[in-house]
Amino acid sequence: MAAAGVVCCGVAIRTFWGGPGPVAVVDWPLPIGSATLALDGLSAWFLLVIGAVSTAVAVYSWDYFRAAIGQQAVWAATALLNALVAAMVITVCAGDIILFMVGWELMSLSAFLLVGFHHRDARTRRGAWMYLIATHLGTALGVLPVFGAFAASTGSTAFAGFAGAFNSSPTAVGAVLFFLGLLGFGTKAGIMPMHVWLPEAHPVAPSPVSALMSGVVIKTGIYGLLRLITWLPPLPRSCAVAVVAVAIVTGVMGILYALSQRQYKRMLAYSSVENIGIIMLGIGLGMLGRTTQQPMLEALGFGGALLHVLNHALFKGLLFLSAGAVLHATGVDDIERLGGIARRDPLNAGLFALGCVAICGLPPLNGFVGEFLIYSGLLRGAAADSLFVTAIALVGMAALALIGGFALAGFSRLFGVMFLGEPRDARVHLHATPVSMLAGMAILAFGCIAVALGARLFAGMLSAPLAVVAGAAFDTHASFDAIVAPLVRVSIMSLVALGIASALLAFRRRNVMPAAATDRQATWGCGFATPTARMQYSGSSYIWTLAYSFRSLLRPQRHATRPAGCFTAPVGLETQTADAAFEMGFRPMFRFAARGCERLSPLQHGRIQLYLMYIVATLLIVFAAEAWLSPFSVDSPGKPPPDMTLRGSPGEHHQRGGHSAP
Asked: Which terminus, N or C, of the chain has the lesser number of Cβ atoms within 10 Å?
């Protein structure tokens, strides 16, 4: 798996500088479609993301699964990890509907089995099934109808002929196809309100799986949506506005829900929803630039979205792997029971802190670079001549700033409560992070630093995918270079400032602290004789004021035991925030479906002959529907049907009803 990841990165980088590779068509016995593999700039960009994260996950997994050998089916997990990576490679490199769906379904099934690896836990089974149901609903309601429409229009399942297939159709047709794709691919990506499977599946999966799913699997939904945009004709402005609206709701609500979570992996899952919102904001900005004939706005929007796809894969993979190391060492997933980890495991704490700085979009790390491009596009849109574009850009800018502020509050809380202070629970024991797990995290940490310092290089690499998505007719590298140049200087200055601060801290630790240690006094504990670990901020108290400010959106539940009397009993504060989309939308729908299945349960008799009768009845219904929907009818028994030629590629001849078409 690690070797495959390295090869994927190498092939992707070669494509950026050498152009698209040859199209490979593999013979297979299926009567429909073809096994066509193609690699262009867009595929190469996502192949780079897959390769980088899968390499780090493979190295990390070596020690992560070692302790479970002989106790759990580790061989199954490792085989499924390889299948998942292979499925994602097939998905982003497929040049045909059939092969794409093979990779898409293999990815869904292998991820389902990996999420349910600890299947003896009821919460794990629930998360795995919610993922499987969500991904197949998105496929059935969105992905398959879109592909069916393109195949019917072109008479072929090859992607090569899809571009321009609906150029002569009414504008509404393209808009409907786009919204179907937004539903299908957006469910895989985790946009609201189809995000409900992420906070259920990510926390219960093994940590390498969580990193792979959050870093790469959900990005295949972004790939599918971008690929669909390249096929569709120019879309109306309403589509761009809808994407921006969905992006703002997804980003703001995702980080608000993340703020109030007690389980750190669940918080990271909601943070993935927030970052998908940022990516969708870039896509909406690019679509707005295309609609209003502003190539630079289009390139900055799509370019910022693509760069944030890579950045999020790096720092969110790092955070999931680091959080997995904490869970591996302590067996505790509750933020409120942890504390003081930085003194006992400083290497993991440093890597987690680096990931927190990157995800907050602070210099000098890569999160700042990706969001800077989106901010640049929003600023350019705000200065546009069109009042409509200006209004959309200003709203997007305010939302992105709000998301950044909330992210800073949430991840300062997460790092502070988990790694700083004193241990909150004496029963929690910790061991050092194994070497291979640290090595896997270090690969992603190096990527976060490399993208920030090599911003100009990655801006040049964006030219290849932007040529596919935006089709910009200007020198993207030169245009981006003018924007990225001051950004690199900001990153370098931030690194210098961090170096000076670190040197001063080391000087203080060596020269000042030893002298002060002899005169150290206990901190006054407000009348308590001996301070305890409970006399420090909890995660709930740290974030309660901010969560309460948005109580109309979050509807948090607060359970507080207040002090009373001279000798008070133990007191405490606990907050819980339910997901409104799940509680008010999906839970009633699931209950309705469950009741419907219970009413159909009498049809299950356990008799094979009845099941065969069901199959025959279903086939008869399908044949009857096919006959009714047939495009021609036979006027008389002796009269053959009129000649029909189905749309297809030149030179192809199709047969229908036993009569060959000329």
From this structure: C
